[in-house]
C-alpha cells in the first residue's frame, strides 16, 4: 500500500496533520466565540443586551478584543523573574491544546477510499480491522491536566506581587484538590469498560447507552466529575483565584497585552477540553441517533455535546455565587473525595453481583 | 538511519541539555523547570519502548505531583538568589557518584548477560492486551504482598504528615 514510514502508510501521516489542523482551528474558534457567547448569554440571563456594536449582533467582538489586546503595551514588572514570567502563559496554554490529541471527535469515516478515524493519535489497522489508539488515553488526559497547574503557579510567583502570589497559591491548591476527585470519579467508568482507551470507552457506550444514564454509579461519578472539572478550570462558582474583590485578578494581575490574552485563551481552551473529556467519558462521545448509518453525523454530535456542556458552564456562572475558600476545600476533600472512594467500592460490589446498569438493577 | 532513530536522537539532545541545565542554572526555579523537561524526555523514552503506562505515570507522578511540590517549596521559602554555595567536597562527592553510575551503566550494557528482551511479556502482547492491564494483573496477583507493604508505608507517611501539621496548630 504505497510508501510506508515506521510501518504505517503515508496517508496516515497526511490524515494526522489534517486532523491536528482541524482540532486546533476548532479549539481556537470555539475559544474566540465562547467569550462572545458567554457575554451574550449572561447578558440575556441578566436581562441585558450584551455586546451588539461590533459587526452584526456584535459578532465581530472577539476579533476586536483580540486586536485590542494584541496592540496593548507589553509590561514586565521590574522585579519579576523574567524567564518564568514569559514561560508561564505558554505553560498554561499548551496542555489545554495537546489534550485534544487523544480525544476521538468522530467515528471512522471514509475519505478518498481510506478509513480515517477522527482521533489524532488513532489509526485504522486493516489487519486487525479496528481502530488502534493510545491505550492509556485517559491517563494522558489526567497527566496533561496535572501540568496546567505549573502555568498558574509560575505566573503567580514570577510576577512578584502579593495579589498574584495569593491567587496563584489558591488556584494551585484548588486544582490539586479537585484533580483527585476528578481522577477518582473516572475509575467507575474504567471498571465498567475494562480499558483505558478512549475508543473502547466510546464503543462501550454505543447505541445511546451513555454512562450518564446507563448506570447509577457512573451517573453520580459523572456529576462529581463535572463539578470537579469546573473547579479545576477555575470557573464560577469556583473562581476564587481571580476573585476580583479580594485579589484584583489573581495570578494574572501583572500580565498585560498578548500574555494576558494567552491566560484568557487558556481558561476557555481548558473549558473546551474538559467539556470534550466529559463528553467522551460520560456522554457517549460522538455517539447519537443514526450515527452508524451516517458516520459524518458523528463530529456534529460531538460538537453539539461539547457546546451544550459549555453552555451549562455559562449558565452556572450566571446563576451561582462564588464559594468561600473554606467551603471550597470542605467540598473537595470532605464531600467529593469520600464519595468517589465509596463509589468505587459500590461499583466493585455491584459489578460482582452483575448489577452494573440501571436495566440490571430493575430486572429486564 | 530510520525515522525512529532520528526522533530518539532529538529527544536525547533535549534530555541531555535539560539535565545539564538542572545542575548549571543559577536560579533554583529554572533548575526545577529543567528537571520537569528531563522527566518529559524520560516519558518519551518509555513511550518509545512500548510502555505507555509507565510514560503516563512518569508524567502524572513526577512532573505533575512531585515537581509541583518542589516548585512550591522553592517559591514559599523564596530561594531567589544563587544558593549555589555548596562546598567543594559536595561537588566532589556528586562527581564521584556520577562517574560511578556512568561506569556501572557502561559495565551492565557491555558485559551484561541480557542481550535481548527476556520474560513472557512481549511488545506484541502489550499492543494487544494493553500495558495497564498486564501491569495490573501481575501487581494484584504475583506481587500482592510488596504492593500491600508499599500501601502501608504510604499510609504511615500520611499519618505522619497529619500529625506534623496538627502539632503546629496547637
UniProtKB/TrEMBL annotation, chain A:
Keywords: Cell membrane, Membrane, NAD, Quinone, Translocase, Transmembrane, Transmembrane helix, Ubiquinone. InterPro entries: NADH_UbQ_OxRdtase_su1/FPO (IPR001694), NADH_UbQ_OxRdtase_su1_CS (IPR018086). Pfam families: NADHdh. Its EC number is 7.1.1.-. Belongs to the complex I subunit 1 family. NDH-1 is composed of 14 different subunits. Subunits NuoA, H, J, K, L, M, N constitute the membrane sector of the complex. This is NADH-quinone oxidoreductase subunit H. It comes from Trichlorobacter thiogenes. The lineage of its organism: Bacteria, Pseudomonadati, Thermodesulfobacteriota, Desulfuromonadia, Geobacterales. The gene is nuoH.
From TrEMBL, chain B:
It is an enzyme of class 7 (translocase). The keyword Transmembrane helix applies. It is found in: Cell membrane. The chain crosses the membrane at residues 6-25, 32-49, 55-79, 91-109, 143-165. GO terms for molecular function: NADH dehydrogenase (ubiquinone) activity; quinone binding. One of its GO terms (cellular component) is plasma membrane. InterPro entries: NADH_UbQ/plastoQ_OxRdtase_su6, Nuo/plastoQ_OxRdtase_6_NuoJ. Its main location: membrane. Its EC number is 7.1.1.-. It catalyses: a quinone + NADH + 5 H(+)(in) = a quinol + NAD(+) + 4 H(+)(out). It is a multi-pass membrane protein. Keywords: Cell membrane, Membrane, NAD, Quinone, Transmembrane, Transmembrane helix. NDH-1 shuttles electrons from NADH, via FMN and iron-sulfur (Fe-S) centers, to quinones in the respiratory chain. Couples the redox reaction to proton translocation (for every two electrons transferred, four hydrogen ions are translocated across the cytoplasmic membrane), and thus conserves the redox energy in a proton gradient. Belongs to the complex I subunit 6 family. This is NADH-quinone oxidoreductase subunit J.
